[in-house]
Amino acid sequence: MDVGIVGYGVYIPQYRIKVEEIAKVWGADPEQIKRGLMVEEKSVPGPDEDTATIAVEAARAAVRRANIDPREIGAIYVGSESHPYAVKPTATIVAEAVGATPDLTAADYEFACKAGTAGIQTCMGMVEAGMIEYGMAVGADTAQSAPGDALEYTAAAGGAAFIVGRNGKRTIASIDGTYSYTTDTPDFWRREMRPYPKHGGRFTGEPAYFRHIISAAKGLLQQLKLTPEDFTYAVFHQPNGKFPLKAAKILGFSKEQVLPGLVVTKIGNTYSGSTLIGLALILDNARPGDRILAVSYGSGAGSDAFSLTVQDGINNNGDATLKVMDYVNRKEYIDYGTYAKLRRLLVR
Amino acid sequence: MAVPRFWREIPNRYNLIGTKCGNCNTVFFPPRSVCPKCRRMGKLEPYKLRGRGKIVSYCTVHVPADGFEDAVPYVLAIVELEEGPRITAQITDCNPDSVKIGDEVEVTFRQIREESQDGLIYYGYKFKPVSNPPSEG
Ligand SMILES: [Zn+2]
User: Fold this and answer.
1) Same domain for B72 and B122?
2) CB A84 within 8 A of CB B114
3) Ordered alpha helix ranges (H), chain A
4) Which residue from A125, A136, A143 is spatially nearest to A180, judged by alpha carbons?
5) Alpha-carbon distance A115 to A137, whole Å?
6) From the centroid of its chain, how far is CA A193?
């Protein structure tokens, strides 16, 4: 494989709501929830933000970081489960806003929380085949949850964009390989025209998240003949803080490999943004030679695993964009009433 | 606003594409097709503004225009861009009470308004306070 990441960027809205604030409304014990989920607070989109605006901000940052002419981007895929339109692509808005139109192909992807990594795989194939110079994959969401549902403590907003190109002097991280594991598993779904998703409760754990993450990670390690000791860092989809740490333990990865990319505790589950923001956080602090395992998970269900090796390009242009932690630390707390208005739980 | 007009203005609304006179170097936003100084000598070319500037005047809106009911109170400002043009835009991600003349702001891509529940969503530029300025480049 001769492709890698040449640019990446993230965006996280500035509003936050604390677990305590949500728990107070529903008469729940916040300490128990925070311990159980390992989540303290989550990001909330502002009144003028949606998946398209988040995707555009992340995509613009990725282009600045890559320092390429956006007209060289030949494909843009935006993965989300909260596209603003049911019919009308988010990807065309992103393509126009980064200045990549009109000579490119673009489409929206849907696969719960792994639609962004599916886009990376598509771009990898197209770059490797020589169809395009650069391809951009974005994972972004403004996740909705029914009021009072367990998901309300974690369903958050954010996104990340990755630009894939042939390996060369711009390469931030080369992609050693990818492997996916996919089955028909009904752990989480939302029907057409329905505002909130439904989920299978405890069913979301063992047969869904863990089975797919672990099978995808094992499949990739086997394919590349690597072991957990070969990796400096590992990032797994972060629906909460507990799941990725447990998956790491089962696979034989240490906490030290996983904690540097664990960001769900401070921003919640950004769905299609989750694995990618975690990967961006690791890249923000990585050095040439570091090897990273990244495994996404999308309900329904599937996992995409990637092995990346950080290259000298990581030292290029690092000041061109804000870091993940800049966004994590830039925050404005809101109460549940404001949250209800922003998420349109209250409509006049 | 009609859909065709919104569509025509997408380059300016999304990417702050104005025009620059090749004769006197004046930058215009919204774009002009004739330079008022140079007239027939002017050579106007599309020019992308960097999206940074400072607030030269503002007001806080409490009685909103149609379609902005849920946004009150919001700040409307005249922003002087680095390249010279002054534009009127909403300041977002801010506490209206802490906005001041002279504040440095940067462009951000936001929903401007939506026609209705089943209508078009209009996207475009707003400005927000500069948080942690990335360096040039
Ligand atoms: Zn002139």
Assistant:
1) yes
2) no
3) 19-26, 30-37, 51-66, 90-98, 115-128, 211-224, 242-251, 255-258, 264-267, 274-284, 324-329, 336-342
4) A125
5) 9
6) 24
pTM (global) more than 0.80: yes
Q: Cα(B113)–Cα(B123) distance, rounded to whole angstroms? A: 7
Interface test with A, best of B107, B109, B120 (most A CBs within 10 A): B109
Nearest residue of chain B to residue A326 (CA atoms): B132
Q: Within this chain, do residues B2 and B33 fall inside the same structural domain, yes or no?
A: yes
Q: Say what the ipTM of the complex is.
A: 0.94
What are the tens digits of pLDDT across the range A230-244? 999 999 999 999 999
What six digits make up the tokens of A183? 């089955």
Question: What is the rounded CA–CA span in Å between residue A26 and residue B9?
Answer: 46
Interface test with A, best of B16, B74, B123 (most A CBs within 10 A): B123
- Whether residues B59 and B44 share a domain: the answer is no
**Could you tell me the distance, in angstroms and rounded to a whole number, from the CA of residue B59 to the centre of ligand 1?**
32
Where in the sequence is the domain holding B2, given as residue range(s)? 1-49
Q: Is the pLDDT of residue A202 over 80?
A: no
Q: Which of B48, B71, B109 sits opposite A47 (nearest CB)?
A: B71
Estimate the crossing angle of helix A211-224 against helix A242-251, to 10 degrees: 40
pLDDT digit string, tens, across residues A133-162: 999 999 999 998 999 999 999 999 999 999
Would you say residue A236 lies in a domain? yes
Residues B111 and B74 placed together within one structural domain of the fold: yes
Assigned domain for A221 exists: yes
Collect all residues with Cβ–Cβ distance below 8 Å to A195 and sequence separation of at least 6. Answer: A144, A146
The packing angle between helices A115-128 and A274-284, to 10°, is 70
**Structural domain includes residue B117:** yes
For chain B, the 3-state helix, strand and coil shares in percent, each to the nearest 5, are 15, 40, 45
CB atoms within 10 A of CB B24: 13
User: CA torsion A238→A242→A247→A252, rounded to 10°?
Assistant: 120
d(CA A76, CA A174) in angstroms, rounded, equals: 19
Residues paired with residue A96 on neighbouring β-strands, in sequence order = none
What is the distance between the alpha carbons of residues A281 and A314, in angstroms, rounded to a whole number?
A: 13
Angstrom distance (rounded) from CA A168 to CA B27? 37
Contact A54, A142 (CB under 8 A): yes
Shared-domain flag, residues A327 and A337: yes
A248 preceded by a cis bond (ω within 30 of 0): no
